[in-house]
Amino acid sequence: MGLAPPPNYHADVNKLSPQSTAVSTLTRRLFALNVVAQCAIVVTGALVRLTGSGLGCPTWPDCAEGSLIPVQRQAEGFHKYIEFGNRLLTFVLAVVIIASIIAAIRHKPRRTPLVILSASLLLGVVAQAVLGGITVLTGLNPYSVAAHFLVSIVMIALATTLYERGRERGDAKPTILVQPLLANVARLLVVVGLLVVVIGTVVTGSGPHSGDAASLVRFGLEPRAISWLHADVVIAFLGLTFALLIGLTVTSAPRRAIRAVQVLLVLIVLQGALGFTQYFLGVPELLVALHVVGACAIWWATLRIWFAMRTRLVAADLLSVEEHRST
Ligand code: HEM
Q1: 239 and 124 share one domain
Q2: What tens digit of pLDDT does each residue of 17-72 get?
Q3: 161 and 28: one domain?
Q4: Most buried of the four, 18, 69, 70, 248, by CB within 10 Å?
Q5: At residue 305, does pLDDT exceed 60?
């Protein structure tokens, strides 16, 4: 089937890749695993906080004095296992990333952006391990807890980019398949989505789940006011997503772009309902944990829209487009 010419189609023939160089299915799954593992570590990190297990391993990198793993004599009860499980997951994550780097290096022909993206994930794990250590050593300072979360948000973005770029058929200049205004709305959506998440961490840092439940060292903001600011930005985010959906639909944009925005819209509505419910119920731990799962899913869904709006043409596509034009 021929490829319909994009609205602003102006490919430079000389810059087209000769053929598709998308990664194999196995490598694509490995790259997808990175996204899942990054989200999993955010959720287990939240569980550490929500179960009050933040100092379950009171030292770092050791879990107990003189031992990397929890020991019987420790006074921390089940908290030591929860905290240690979170630390252990970092190693799982590192294994997935190293496997991804190897897969990216072995991919023929070499696609340097994939190597750089996978290698930067490894740097991120090192940064997270250090930040995790600082979080423990500062007695769960809420600034450090929030920074730990936000670095994960960057890591999810890198992992999503790695996955999406691996699926793309090369590294030639991408062709945007939607109207320029709508492409800008998609960019703005990423900025507003990030703002929602950042303010979300400030809401947490101002409330009872900022780190150590017993600690009084919090952001010092009024939880009610900052929660409403968080919800207000969510409403703007929702409006922007809805406007993008309408814009894409009336300009007959590619179906996958429309579907990607529909997914985001559904996730925002569910997350919004969850957010208000947890707010009015006094932030029960289970709902907050689900809210963190939702935040990761929304961040992924927001980034994905951008990739659904573009293509990397290869020479074969140009032929299809020319055929399409001559008929
Ligand atoms: C697009 C929708 C939303 C996203 C992406 C989002 C994201 C987040 C994030 C990332 C956090 C910080 C989690 C953490 O640090 O562990 C958070 C916390 C929070 N959010 Fe949202 N949120 C959304 C909608 C809402 C709405 C509509 C409300 C309603 C008031 C709300 C209420 C809260 C509250 C109360 C917290 C603090 C929970 C705690 O004590 O840990 N959220 N949100």
Answers
A1: no
A2: 556 788 999 999 999 999 999 999 999 888 888 888 777 788 777 888 888 888 87
A3: yes
A4: 248
A5: yes
Regarding whether 153 and 181 lie in a shared domain, the answer is: no
Task: Kindly give the distance from the C-alpha atom of residue 279 to the centroid of ligand 1, in angstroms, as a whole number.
Answer: 9
Residue 16 domain flag: no
Beta bridge partners of 310: 176
Three-state secondary-structure class, residue 34: helix
228-247 burial string, b = 16+ CB within 10 Å, else e?
eebbebbeebbebbeebbeb
User: pLDDT value at position 217?
Assistant: 55
Q: How far apart are CA 130 and CA 144, in angstroms?
A: 11
Domain-embedded: residue 322: no
Residue minimizing CA distance to atom 43 of ligand 1? 200
- With respect to residue 325, please indicate whether it lies within any of the assigned structural domains: no
- Per-residue pLDDT of 263-284, as tens digits, reads 999 999 999 999 999 999 999 9
C-alpha of residue 297 to centroid of ligand 1, in Å: 13
Report if residue 116 sits inside a domain.
yes
**What residues contact residue 292 under an 8 Å CB cut-off, 6+ apart?**
42, 43, 46
Ligand 1 geometric centre to CA of 191 (Å):
16
The predicted structure's pLDDT at residue 26: 95
pLDDT at 5 over 50: no
Residue nearest to atom 32 of ligand 1 (CA): 275
Do 96 and 215 fall into the same domain? no
The protein residue whose alpha carbon is closest to atom 25 in ligand 1 is: 275
218 class by beta-carbon count within 10 Å (0-12 exposed, 13-18 middle, 19+ buried): middle
Most confident segment among 8-12, 53-57, 102-106: 102-106
Mutation test residue for ligand 1: of 43, 154, 230, the one with most atoms within 8 Å of CB: 230
Residues having CB closer than 6 A to ligand 1 are 46, 149, 196-197, 200-201, 203-204, 207, 209, 227, 230-231, 234, 237, 268, 271-272, 275-276, 278-279, 283, 288, 291-292, 295, 298
Which residue's CA is the closest to the ligand 1 atom numbered 35?
A: 279
Count of structural domains, the chain: 2
Host domain of residue 184: 173-311
